[in-house]
Backbone:
C-alpha cells in the first residue's frame, strides 16, 4: 500500500453535486416564471418597493443629521427581501450592517432597525422577538454565531434554521472560513447568503479572490454552492427557500452567492466615483430588481396602475412615519452605558459607574 492509497488522501465526498451552475440561476423573464405563484410575486413586489423607499428615506436622514451613517442596499433589495421571506417565524436571521431591509421585512420596527446607525443603543430591537440577531458592523462575525445557534438547535432536536447574510468583502475574513468549515463538519442547518455587489467598499472583486465564483468556495468545505441572479427576486427566493428546506430536513449547510450590485455609495461617507465609472452603474440600473419584477407582473396581467399606486402609497406612508419618528430626539440616560454589559458587573465597571454618577450629581448641584 502506498501513502496515496491511505484513506486520508481519498475524497470524502463527490465534488460534482456540490458545484454551482456555470451561470447565475434566473426565473424572471424565462418560461419557468409562468409557474410562479402570483400571490408570492405581489408580496415580493410590495416589499421591494417599500424597501427602495426605505433606502431613500434613510439616506435622506443621514443628510439631515438624524443618522450617523447609513449603508444603503439600493439595487440589492431582492436579496434582502428574499432572505427574510424564505424563513419561517421560528427561524433565525443573522444580518450584516447593510441588511436593514431584511430586518424590517422580518417584522422589526423600521425605527428600531436604524437605532444602531443612529449612534444610540447597540441594537434597537429585541433579537428574540423576531428572531433577528443584532446588525453586525464587524465583517463576518455574525457567521460563527449563526453556526453556533444552528448547532445548538440540532443538538436539542429543534428544527430551526439560521440564515446568515454577508457581503463579498466579508468572505475575506477568517470568520467566514471558520463558520463554513464548522457548519459543514457538523452538518448544521444554516444557509450562508453572500451578496456579491462587486466591491468591498472600494476594493473590486478581482482584488479579493481568484476563485471562479464565491459559490465555488463551497466545494472546499464540503457543502453545495448555488449561484443566483441577485436582482431576480423570484430566483433568489426560490434558491434560498430550497436551501432552507434542505437544511431543515437534515441536509446540512448551503452557500448561496447572489450576484447583485450596490447602486449607491458604500455609505454616505463614501465617494464611489473614485473607484467605479458612471457607465457601470447605469448598466446595472438597467437590471434593476424592481423593474425586472414589474416587467414580469405586467406581462402576466398582475400589475396595473391601481396596484402600482397602492403599493407606492403604502411605501410613502411608511417613509413619512419613519421620517416623523426619526425627527424626535431620543431621551438618553448616561447611566445606560453600564447597563446590559455583563450579567454581573465587574469591579472596574462598578467603579466607573460610581464615578460617573458622582460627576453627574456634582454637575446638577453646581
Residues:
Amino acid at each position: 500500500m502506498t501513502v496515496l492509497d491511505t484513506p486520508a488522501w481519498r475524497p470524502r465526498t463527490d465534488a460534482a453535486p456540490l458545484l454551482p451552475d456555470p451561470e447565475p440561476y434566473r426565473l424572471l423573464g424565462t418560461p419557468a416564471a409562468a409557474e410562479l405563484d402570483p400571490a408570492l410575486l405581489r408580496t415580493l413586489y410590495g416589499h421591494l418597493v417599500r424597501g427602495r423607499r426605505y433606502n431613500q428615506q434613510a439616506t435622506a436622514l443621514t443628510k439631515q443629521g438624524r443618522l450617523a451613517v447609513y449603508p444603503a442596499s439600493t439595487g440589492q433589495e431582492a436579496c434582502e427581501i428574499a432572505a427574510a421571506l424564505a424563513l419561517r417565524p421560528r427561524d433565525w436571521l443573522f444580518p450584516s450592517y447593510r441588511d436593514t431591509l431584511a430586518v424590517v421585512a422580518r417584522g422589526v420596527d423600521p425605527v428600531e432597525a436604524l437605532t444602531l446607525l443612529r449612534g444610540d443603543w447597540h441594537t434597537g430591537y429585541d433579537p428574540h422577538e423576531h428572531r433577528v440577531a443584532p446588525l453586525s458592523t464587524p465583517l463576518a462575525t455574525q457567521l460563527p454565531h449563526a453556526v453556533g445557534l444552528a448547532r445548538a438547535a440540532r443538538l436539542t432536536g429543534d428544527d430551526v434554521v439560521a440564515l446568515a447574510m454577508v457581503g463579498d468583502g466579508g468572505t475575506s475574513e477568517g470568520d467566514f472560513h471558520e463558520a463554513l468549515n464548522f457548519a459543514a463538519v457538523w452538518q448544521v442547518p444554516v444557509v450562508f447568503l453572500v451578496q456579491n455587489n462587486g466591491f468591498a467598499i472600494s476594493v473590486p472583486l478581482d482584488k479579493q479572490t481568484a476563485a471562479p465564483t464565491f459559490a465555488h468556495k463551497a466545494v472546499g468545505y464540503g457543502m453545495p454552492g448555488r449561484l443566483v441572479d441577485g436582482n431576480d427576486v423570484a430566483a433568489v427566493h426560490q434558491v434560498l427557500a430550497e436551501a432552507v428546506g434542505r437544511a431543515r430536513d437534515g441536509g446540512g449547510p448551503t452557500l448561496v452567492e447572489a450576484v447583485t450590485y450596490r447602486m449607491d455609495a458604500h455609505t454616505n461617507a463614501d465617494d464611489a466615483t473614485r473607484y467605479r465609472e458612471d457607465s457601470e452603474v447605469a448598466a446595472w440600473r438597467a437590471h434593476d430588481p424592481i423593474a425586472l419584477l414589474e416587467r414580469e407582473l405586467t406581462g402576466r396581467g398582475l400589475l396595473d396602475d391601481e396596484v402600482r399606486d397602492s403599493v407606492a402609497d403604502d411605501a410613502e406612508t411608511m417613509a413619512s412615519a419613519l421620517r416623523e419618528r426619526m425627527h424626535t430626539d431620543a431621551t438618553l440616560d448616561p447611566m445606560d452605558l453600564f447597563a446590559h454589559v455583563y450579567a454581573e458587573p465587574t469591579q472596574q465597571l462598578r467603579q466607573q459607574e460610581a464615578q460617573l454618577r458622582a460627576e453627574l450629581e456634582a454637575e446638577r448641584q453646581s
